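Model the whole thing, not chain by chain.
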Amino acid sequence: MADESVDLAVIGAGPAGLSAAVTAAELGASVALFDEQPAPGGQVWRGLERQGRGGDRAGHDLIARARSTAGIRLRLATTVFHAAFEGADGPTLSWMDAGGLGRTTARGLVLATGAMERPLAFPGWTLPGVLGVGALQAALKTGGLVPESGGGGLVIVGRGALVLLYLAQLAAAGGRTAAVLELAGPGRNLGRLASRLPGALLGDPATLGRGSWLLAARARRGVPLHRGVTNLQAEGGGRVEAVRFTDAGGERVLPCRLLAVHDGVIPNTQASRLLRLDHEWRDDAACFAPVTDDWGRASRVGKALGGAGVWVAGDGAGIEGAKGAAIAGRLAGLDAARCLGRLPESAFRAHASAPLRARAGIQALRRFLDTLDPPLDPAAGLADGTVVCRCEEVTAGTIRAAIAGGAVGPNRVKTATRCGMGACQGRVCGPILTRLLAHETGRPAAEIGALRVRPPLKPVPLGALAALDRADAPVEAEEE
Amino acid sequence: MATGRDMLVIGGGLIGLSTAIAATRAGLSVTVLEARTCGRHASSASAGGVRSLNRHPAEIALARAALGLWRRGPELFGDPCGYAQSSQVRVAEDEAAMEGLRARLALVEGLGWRHERLVGRNELYSRLPSLAGHCQGALVVEDDGFADPLRSVHAFRRTALGLGATIVENAAVTAIEADATGVTVGLADGSDRRARVVVNAAGAWGAGLAAGVGEAVDVRPVALQMTVTEPVPAFVGPVVGSHGRKLSLKQSDVGTVVIGGGFEGTADLATGDSELSFAGVARNMANAVRLFPVLAEARVVRTWAGIEGIARDDLPVLGTSRSAPGLIHAFAFSGHGFALCPLVGRIVADLAAGRDPGFDLAPFAPDRFAPGRFAAT
Amino acid sequence: MSPFRRSARISSSTLTLLVDGETVPAVDGDSVATALLAAGRTAFAASGKTGNPLAAYCLMGVCFGCLCEIDGRPGTQACLTAARDGMTVQTRHGDDADGR
């Protein structure tokens, strides 16, 4: 079993994690940088390294620096399945890669695990062929996959800037969308969003300069747009074959072979909740996010965090896009270096001031975006028969019955219904569950909270956990 | 101050709920006061073994009697609670363990019990074909079984409510005071409640409440750790343990494998929170995969823990208080109360009514710990 | 027929995967999930509870809808696994291009 000790462990090699690792390492810290994907870049720079000269310049630079900076140990295709503070000195990570198990002790930890698509449940959403818009982006970046037109082709449903981004990327790749369904919401207007949204906001400058916006607008012009869509249902036998909905013109059915759904992105807080970091509910973004200071430093009420500290950077702390994530990573890297004794206070202030200002600007734009295009309420109009927990096939009706029977929090609902007990460990159903509980009990989401996260962070073979057992370890005596 | 209730039960776990059921059936009006949510702790930290196998001699009679109640789940609790009869098997992994099993058998038979039986390699491997090849034999009880702890909690709760009991959650009791006419309990929110009889079924927190009436018990709080895998193809029927090892392993009917055995994480009584010991999880898994190599590739999906009170002698504190009239203790089941819970409620209801419960409760006496030296924490 | 085609920009370097005993083409840079999607398989896992098809949904390691046995390792997320020439994949749901 691999065993190492470093100054700083960074989980996630997207813009934030790469930036934090490079920043800290260039100041002399030893860094272990983990990512479960086979190549660095996270989601926004997925497949970027293989593109050679194409794609985001900033991404290429940061990845190249991460690979070449002495002091960074890059661990790709590696799953961190546990992180905990076992002593006062700092966190210990347990991980697995193709070669086996590993253990890394560090003095400080940066969580840069990014975002996930906010789940949007509706009848038929579990049919094969229903994917997130972000998933289609990943398919495009990874395998150059473009939807075929036959059988109705691709229909996109939802809201959010990522929809516009994907339309532009798809058009650039020579693909077509059969229709866009804009889900109903107060003041919602995709066209107005497109015209008022500065390209830099989406953090993908290579494909989204001013020109790309024109391309997106042009691409969108050729695509039928249905507005004020309600009563969304996916239909099909064994896979999605059509989407049924209501718009201003009445009930409609469109054939499709792919249905791409999007309702914005939210921080992936699985790792930050595993560590019991303090989280808050953000009303405007309708999501939980870790509580951090200006440098991204996290806190934990009640049980102090040992070692130099824990930071959360990038979309995992709050959605700010790739450029914002890279800046947040730099700030966390600088603060970590300072806490590790690698950066004197005065130098820290000097280095941090510009990124701090830049990030403040991005955050302001993000807040504006959230008010312009607010998220949906997944619990509103959620039919009883609709699956909420995909892994265990638990419906909204079953959950409502449990709530009515006295299960007033997400963990109670989990034990009563098995929602959240499946392979995804509550990642997808958790956000829906919190909003559904808020809806049914009339209590605010902030009070309801999220599902408790326990190790392992990802399912891990039992034999691997067993292999962590050391015969000489001070486990309690096994008298019987 | 709310009065007029016959019985207040402190603690909404399986013991408290079982008490509420038996007491309401006996005609009392009962209120259960649960600090957080019913079944939150020890009741959820069980692999669900309904076990008389390898019981402490003092508990054998209770365990054997409790088996009969589990079989009547639909009648008593409106739900089978996931109960199924199934042998319990305690494997001996080497000759020394086999000697231990033989000694155990002699002890049990010497006390007049015939439910435990020693089997050799041939019978062991015909029962457990997936067992690793190094085992020597096992102790078996045929008519033990298993049930589903979470389903049991929900069923007991529904039954208690259906019988007219009141259950109040988020109602932590911090103090007990007895006088000539009844017992008053103080709650964390500053309110009081009063009844003729109060039952201390507060699990790990019961020790603090007992200390508050001058009954020091040697009970320490631990967080019992549990692990469950994804569904795997059926490979084992009985609940399996291993002599000299901490292991309790059960494959559910949906194929998931629930593994416990008493590994301890750290418990914080003040917050009700617990921290798992990852080293304990690793040792627990090592014990499991050593017996069933087929588990090596099964993925562990989840771990959890529930806070339990463990007495110095591993026996519950069960009986009338010696210092506070009207107070009955029923806590510290030391990690093996699940099988007993349908019966404990009846015993407590009997004690409350002044009836002989029909079992020797002397080994569980609240005052069995030497005073002073073993004060509860 | 697959709901996807390959855009012109992909690598010309092709690989072969063995999926449920059949050969499935892939390109350098594919994840196992995108290779299967390109081949017309949108469901390659099955619910442990009912056997209903579980679909790849997020393609980023969050939803666990893409679990397969890859090179003998069960329960592997296909979307996080780079396709390699000669890889063997065992899905739990024998979906073919016509969705049967």
